[in-house]
Amino acid sequence: MLKKITNYFVIPFAICVILATTLFPKTTVDMTNFSTEGLELNYTVSEDIALSATFEETSHQTNYNKFFPYLGKSYLGFKEALAFKESRGNYFTVNDLGYLGKYQFGAETLKLLGVYNPEYFLYTPELQEKAFLANSARNKWILRKDIARFVGTEIHGTTITESGILAAAHLAGPGSVKKFLRSRGGYNLSDAYGTSISYYMKRFSGYDTSFIKPNQKAKANL
Length: 222
Description:
This protein is mostly helical and 222 residues long. The chain is 50% helix and 2% strand. A hairpin with a 2-residue loop joins strand 1 and strand 2.
């Protein structure tokens, strides 16, 4: 009999007590302690602030490294630094003069590289990367004698390097770079935005561009 009383009354009673304790605790949680009202939760850095460091000269180079992966003086660092100066690294941009993509190629230069469809080029990042390498290889072949002659010399206080020569050739063409070097800086062509050969020669000096092999017939082929 005692066992039956325990089964019918004590055990159910204990279960009810446990449930009541769980569902109706004496201590209530004050949710105001967890309120986010008045807190500044938006920590997004504006694009202008994040990118502004790359437009500063070398005195602000430490700020650049705070915002961007450090690629050093490798070929990758060279092409990405040049691309950022040209277009902020945007594959799909066209400037008001009609220059296309991440590296801002003109239609005539693309034809020399075997690219005849500018629209396809604009929307094909892989082709843009191949075009940059092919154009650099072609320029390096055209300027090979000037690279051998002038690298290590100084023009207007800037030490001439192979990467500076190739960057300037991307800006103004290899023929204009030849004139700049052979006139010792007397011929210093600027583009439509006022950027000069000497500026690129200095801005992009000292990168390792040995990855680029001179090739007179380099083409951008997928």
